[in-house]
Design a protein that fits this description.
heterodimer; A: Cytochrome Bc1 Complex, Chain C; about 65% helix; B: mainly alpha; 14 helices; flat
C-alpha cells in the first residue's frame, strides 16, 4: 500500500493529480436529477476503445490484398488463439457502436439537450455518427467476402447518382471503374488510419465542449423544464447541490458499461451471426452476384429509400435533406421547452421520424 | 509557395489516379455458347440443358467432351483443333472415363459395361448428355432401370447404399452450417469429396457384396469425419463472460447505492 501511496504522491507533486480528483469529487457536480441515459456517452467511449484494441489485434494478421484478405480473416478466425472471439467482437462491436450512438442521439433529442448553448455538441455528435457509419462501411469491405464485395459495389454505386460529379466520386472511392484492389487499399487506409484519427479528434472536441458548458439538466423530476440559458455571455452551467461525478456518476457509468458488456458478450457468444449473414463467409467473386444482397442494417433505410423513388437522384436528395435537417436541428428548433410532453408537436414529429426510419429499415430487410 | 502547390497537385493526382485500373475483365463466354444460343431449338437446346447441369456448376464446358477450340470462333469446330462432334455411343464410357477414372473401372467390370455395344447402357443413359446429373440414389429408380431389366437387383443395391448416402448428406449439411459460421472446413470438404467419389464410383459395379463391404468401410471413415469441425467460441466461455459482466453491474449498483 505504501508503494502505491508513494507513487500517487510522486505523480501528485508533478501533475497535481490530487487536485484533479478533488475537483471531480466536489467541483464537477452533475444535476441531481441526472439519469442513466447520460452514461451512454461513456458506454460509447468504451465501445470505441474496444474497437481500437480489437482492430489493432486484427491488424497483426490481416492482409489488405484481394488475393489474401479473405484467407487471412479465415486464418484469424480458425487458427489464431482467441482470433475468432476478437474478430467477432470487432464485427459485432461495429453494429453495437451504431446502435448505442442512435440511442445516445435519441436521448439527447427527447431531453432537449441539443438546445442552446449546445448546438456544437449536437453537430460534432452528428458528424461522429456519420464518421461511425463511414468507418463501418469501409471496414465492411476488408474481409473481401461476397457480402462485403457486393454491398460495397451497391453502396458506391449510390454515389454515382449525384449529378455531374457522381461518376467521378465513384471512381475516387473505388480507385477505378470497379471495386477492386485499389478500393480495398483506399478503404483500408480510411478504416485504420484516417477515420479513427478523425473520430478521436471529434470525440476530443465533443468532450471539450461538454467540459466547457457543463452537463445539461434533464427535463424530468423538476418543475421548470425550460432552457435557462441566457445568450448574453458565456456561462458554465452549474448544478449547486448536485451529485459529484466521482464516485457517484462514475459508478452509474460502470453499471451501464457492465450491462452493455453483458449484452455485447451475449451477442458475440450466442448470436454472432445476427449481424453476419452466411454470404459473409464466402470469398468475394466479382462474377457471381449473390441473390438479395443487402447492406448492413443501419443502411437498410437508405437503401429502401433509394429504391422507393422512381429516380435515384430524388431518393438521394430526400436523404440528404433529411440528414441536413437533423444536423441543423438545434439551429431550427429555437423553442426553450425541453420536456418532451410539453412540446407535443416536436415529440410527435420525432417519434414519427424514428418510426419511419424503423419501418424503412424493416421494409429494406424484407424487400 | 510553388513547392506547396506542386505537392498538393501531386497528392491530388496520386489519390485520383486510376491509370492502373484492375482489368477485371468479364468472365470469358466461350464461343460455343455465344454461337449456339442464337441457333434454332435443336442446336440451342444443349446450351440450356448444359447450363443446368453439374458440369456447368463445375465449369466443365462443351470442349471438354466435344473437343475443338472454345476461344476461336473461326476454328472452334475444326478437327485440326481437336473437334470430335457427337461421340459414338460405344465411345461414351471411354470419353467420360477420361475424367471419371474410378467410375470407368467399376463400370467396365459390371454387367452394364460388359454389354456395351450390344444394348447395354452408357453413362448418358442414366446421367444425361448435356443436362448431366451427378450420381445419386435417385438415379437408381424404376423409371431408369426397368426399361432394360427388372428392379429387383437395383432395389437391393439401392437399399445397401441408403445409409451411407444419408451419412454423406448429413455431413454435407453440417459442413454447410459450419461454413455459414466462418469455420474452416477445407480439410473436411476434401476428405468428404474423396469418400463421396469413392462411394459414387462404386455405384457402377452392380456387385451387391462389394457394395456392402465398401459401404461399411466408407461409413467407418465418415464416422471419423463426424467429429471434426465446430471450432466455436462455445457456450461455457460465453455464459462466464455474460455472468461476469452482470455480476460487475450488480456489484457497481450495490456500491452506488451505498455511496448515494
Amino acid at each position: 500500500m505504501n508503494v502505491l501511496k508513494n507513487l500517487y504522491n510522486w505523480i501528485d507533486v508533478r501533475l497535481g493529480a490530487r487536485e484533479i480528483i478533488d475537483k471531480k469529487r466536489s467541483g464537477y457536480l452533475l444535476p441531481s436529477n441526472i439519469n442513466a441515459c447520460y452514461s451512454l456517452g461513456s458506454v460509447l467511449l468504451v465501445i470505441f476503445a474496444l474497437q481500437i484494441v480489437t482492430g489493432l489485434l486484427l491488424m497483426l494478421y490481416y492482409v489488405p490484398d484481394i488475393d489474401k484478405a479473405f484467407n487471412s480473416v479465415s486464418f484469424i478466425m480458425n487458427e489464431i488463439p482467441l482470433g475468432r472471439l476478437i474478430r467477432l467482437c470487432h464485427a459485432v462491436g461495429s453494429s453495437m457502436m451504431i446502435l448505442v450512438l442512435l440511442l445516445h442521439m435519441f436521448s439527447v433529442l427527447f431531453m432537449g439537450s441539443y438546445k442552446s448553448p449546445r448546438e456544437l455538441h449536437w453537430l460534432t455528435g452528428f458528424i461522429l455518427f456519420l464518421m461511425a457509419m463511414g468507418i463501418s462501411l469501409t471496414g465492411y469491405l476488408l474481409p473481401w467476402n461476397q457480402l462485403s464485395f457486393w454491398a460495397t459495389t451497391v453502396a458506391t454505386d449510390c454515389v454515382g447518382t449525384i449529378p455531374i460529379i457522381g461518376q467521378y466520386l465513384v471512381e475516387l472511392l473505388r480507385g477505378g471503374k470497379l471495386v477492386g484492389f485499389q478500393t480495398l487499399g483506399r478503404f483500408y487506409t480510411l478504416h485504420v488510419g484516417l477515420l479513427p484519427a478523425v473520430i478521436t479528434i471529434l470525440i476530443g472536441i465533443h468532450l471539450f465542449l461538454i467540459q466547457r458548458t457543463g452537463v445539461s439538466t434533464p427535463p424530468f423530476g423538476i418543475d421548470n423544464t425550460s432552457n435557462q440559458w441566457k445568450s448574453e455571455k458565456f456561462a458554465y452551467e452549474e448544478h449547486p447541490g448536485g451529485i459529484p461525478f466521482f464516485p457517484n456518476f462514475f459508478l452509474q457509468d460502470m453499471i451501464s458499461v457492465s450491462l452493455y458488456l453483458a449484452c455485447f458478450m451475449a451477442l458475440v457468444f450466442f448470436f454472432p451471426n445476427l449481424f453476419i449473414p452466411s454470404t459473409a463467409y464466402m470469398p468475394a467473386n466479382p462474377y457471381v452476384t449473390p441473390a438479395n444482397i443487402k447492406p448492413e442494417w443501419y443502411f437498410l433505410a437508405n437503401y429502401q429509400t433509394l429504391k422507393l423513388f422512381p429516380s435515384e437522384i430524388i431518393g438521394l436528395t430526400v436523404q440528404v435533406t433529411a440528414l441536413a435537417f437533423v444536423a441543423l436541428l438545434p439551429f431550427l428548433d429555437r423553442g426553450t421547452e425541453k420536456h418532451p410532453l410539453k412540446r407535443p408537436v416536436f415529440t410527435f414529429c420525432a417519434v414519427a421520424g424514428i418510426l419511419l426510419w424503423l419501418g424503412m429499415t424493416v421494409w429494406g430487410y424484407y424487400s | 509557395m510553388i513547392g506547396c502547390t506542386t505537392t498538393l497537385i501531386l497528392l491530388v493526382s496520386f489519390i485520383l489516379s486510376s491509370s492502373i485500373l484492375a482489368s477485371a475483365a468479364g468472365q470469358q463466354v466461350i464461343v460455343c455458347i455465344q454461337c449456339h444460343t442464337g441457333q434454332p431449338a435443336q442446336l440451342s437446346q444443349p446450351v440450356k440443358l448444359w447450363q443446368a447441369s453439374i458440369h456447368a456448376e463445375h465449369g466443365i464446358a462443351c470442349n471438354a467432351c466435344h473437343g475443338g477450340d472454345p476461344l476461336d470462333s473461326v476454328s472452334a469446330m475444326s478437327p485440326a483443333r481437336g473437334f470430335r462432334g457427337t461421340p459414338l455411343p460405344t465411345a461414351v464410357p471411354a470419353l467420360c472415363g477420361g475424367c471419371h477414372m474410378g467410375v470407368m473401372k467399376y463400370y467396365a467390370l459390371s454387367a452394364h459395361g460388359k454389354t456395351l455395344g450390344s444394348g447395354g447402357p452408357t453413362c448418358v443413359t442414366c446421367h444425361g448428355s448435356h443436362n448431366v446429373v451427378s450420381a445419386s440414389l435417385d438415379l437408381i429408380s424404376k423409371k431408369n432401370c426397368t426399361p432394360c431389366h427388372t428392379f429387383d437387383q437395383a432395389r437391393l443395391i439401392r437399399s445397401a447404399m441408403l445409409k451411407t448416402e444419408g451419412m454423406l448428406k448429413a455431413i454435407e449439411k453440417r459442413i454447410s452450417t459450419l461454413k455459414s459460421q466462418g469455420i474452416e472446413t477445407d480439410g473436411l470438404e476434401k476428405r468428404l469429396f474423396a469418400l463421396r467419389n469413392r462411394f459414387h464410383a462404386m455405384y457402377h459395379s452392380l456387385d451387391i457384396n462389394l457394395i456392402k463391404q465398401e459401404s461399411a468401410h466408407i461409413q467407418a471413415e465418415l464416422e471419423k469425419s463426424n467429429g471434426v469441425g465446430g471450432v466455436g467460441t462455445g457456450p461455457l466461455p460465453g455464459a462466464l463472460a455474460v455472468g461476469w459482466a452482470l455480476l460487475a453491474a450488480l456489484l457497481f449498483s450495490l456500491i452506488k447505492k451505498n455511496v448515494d
